[in-house]
Amino acid sequence: MPVISICLSPGFQRSVLIDALTLGEVNRLDSVIVDVSGKGVNVCRVLQRLGVDALCLAQGGSNGDALMALAEREGLNLRLIPASGQLRTCTSIIETALPSGCRVTELVEPNSEVDAACVERLSARVQALLPIAAALVIAGSMAPGFPPGYQARLAAMAGDCGVPVFLDIQGAALREAVAMHPALVKINLAEFVAAFLAGRFQGGEHSGVLAQAMMAPELTHAIAEVSRQHATSFVLTRGANSILLAGDGEVRVVPVPPLAARETLNPVGSGDAFLAGMLTHLLAAGSLRPGNKIDLNALEKATGLATACAQSNARTTRPGFLEASFTPAQTFIAGAN
Q1: Residue 263, domain extent
Q2: Which residues does 158 contact at the CB level (< 8 Å), separation at least 6?
Q3: Among 1, 64, 184, 187, which residue's CB has the most CB atoms within a 10 Å radius?
Q4: pLDDT tens sequence across 69-91
């Protein structure tokens, strides 16, 4: 039974390497590589790398054939729904010769609008696949043209079929979709605060109280209260800091093994690799139950493989990839119970 990963903002990802970027000057790049990307795409790619049967559904565009050619070249199980418009290209500029280690600058293009016919065809394809699905992953933003609440609609379709739903989305879309009782919400702490605790805490992923290594008691209490209100479990990543697991008013803090700055080449896509690793462990452990959120004990056991995947991605230059040498320890998967 495959995992279906939904990507409503796919595109091309250019990863370019340069010693150091000089603004206002001609910069000659050391290397350029182009990949298929998007959060749902990245999740699918890592799932496949870990041996999980997975496919990614996304919209195409006038340049969709070029995207499919890249997917076929790497063996990525991508299914594109025909759409008008053009798929975007985003760029990661990776500076490799800075004293502090690599620095990554992301250039994100806007998405083209999706036509109504594509929306309906994609919905029909999801509905047709759900009876044979092991799980549904909805990750990333939506291109213009998808109607408000569309990700919640997909989550409700899966729920009606008894298929566990995994969410990695933000803001209003998350608040709508979490009402469909997903099995798990995996986002970073800053995204969680923006969606459920807006205005109560200052800072973001890399600054303020949210970026502090030690969790403020009032923040922990607020997370617990949100988790008590929703019939789902939350996994909140904090970069190099600890992972937070929350559900039914309980919050657990799981330490993260340190990753040296010199080892980190490009952290973009690490959250997607984390989700794929966590889902792989949960599937292998038999921890998914139709209609039920995931127990925190099961999630805590799954953080080992999830973190290993996230850190392996950070040690590569390509978002949503694991190192060629990456082999998860057997205890991460087989010894899950």
Answers
A1: 3-19+31-333
A2: 130, 133, 136, 164, 165
A3: 184
A4: 999 999 999 999 999 999 999 99
